[in-house]
Design goal:
It is a single chain. This protein is an alpha/beta fold and about 210 residues long. It has a single domain (about 20-210), classed as Rossmann fold (3-Layer(aba) Sandwich). Helices cover about 30% and strands about 25% of the residues. It contains seven helices and seven strands, in the order H-E-H-E-H-E-E-H-E-H-H-H-E-E. It has helices at about 20-35, 50-55, 65-75, 115-125, 145-150, 155-160, 175-180; strands at about 40, 60-65, 80-85, 100-110, 130-140, 185-195, 200-210. The radius of gyration is 16 Å and the shape is globular. It starts with 19 loop residues before the first helix and ends in a 5-residue tail after the last strand.
């Protein structure tokens, strides 16, 4: 298991996480807008987003450091390639495309679980071809949402330490953007998904790898 994550996430079935209902439609639309054909799901878990993207006709590979999640994904979606890989490794070792790289990397609700998110950002950057697109989601945190959590006394529920494999980083658009820029990305878009504006459940940052000089 990767030292960059809290340990085994706790996958027990092929059931999609509830967040897929409001995140995956936006991810699929953004992948289509990017015109991507070769896509890597970095932190694919038990594989439901990979299955949806495969249905859209893209060449999708899923990787995750949790062996149990990969076992479930392989059993439930045998037509899709899934590999155990950690973010400390080189994405080129996956050997999923002729040049080892992808047009697009997607990652949903992963970065908030990582001890070493800088390794995640580097991994995604190395996995992309020049001008490739990174689409990453994480729970949204902003002033109005944080205020609403305080007023309704929901911080213990929102930040519960009792969730096995739970969140250990809490990102804003500013801090996540800084992480990705530090890895060499250009931030090209932001979306909020789930619930009302500025009370979003999650946010999506869209970043681009610059062309090689």
């Amino acid at each position: 298991m990767s030292s960059a994550i809290t340990g085994q996430y706790g996958w027990e079935s092929a059931e999609a996480p509830h967040s897929c209902a409001y995140i995956n439609p936006a991810i699929r639309r953004l992948v289509r807008q990017a015109g991507a054909r070769d896509v890597l799901d970095a932190g694919c878990g038990n594989g439901p987003l990979c299955a949806e993207l495969a249905d859209d006709g893209v060449h999708i590979i899923g990787v995750d450091g949790d062996r149990r999640g990969i076992e479930i994904a392989r059993a439930h979606y045998p037509h899709i390639r899934f590999e155990v890989a950690t973010f400390e490794e080189s994405p080129l070792a996956i050997g999923a495309t002729p040049d080892g790289r992808f047009d697009c990397v997607v990652s949903t609700e992963v970065v908030e679980h990582l001890y070493a998110p800088h390794e995640f950002a580097r991994f995604c950057y190395e996995a992309l071809r020049p001008q490739g697109t990174l689409i990453v989601s994480t729970p949204y945190h902003g002033y109005l949402k944080n205020l609403a959590l305080s007023v309704t006394n929901m911080w213990d529920h929102h930040h519960t330490p009792l969730w096995y494999g739970g969140h250990i980083k809490f990102w804003s658009a500013k801090t996540l953007g800084a992480l990705l820029r530090g890895a060499g990305f250009e931030i090209v878009g932001f979306e909020g998904v789930g619930r009302l504006p500025y009370l979003w459940k999650s946010m999506i940052l869209i970043a681009r790898k610059p062309p090689q000089p």
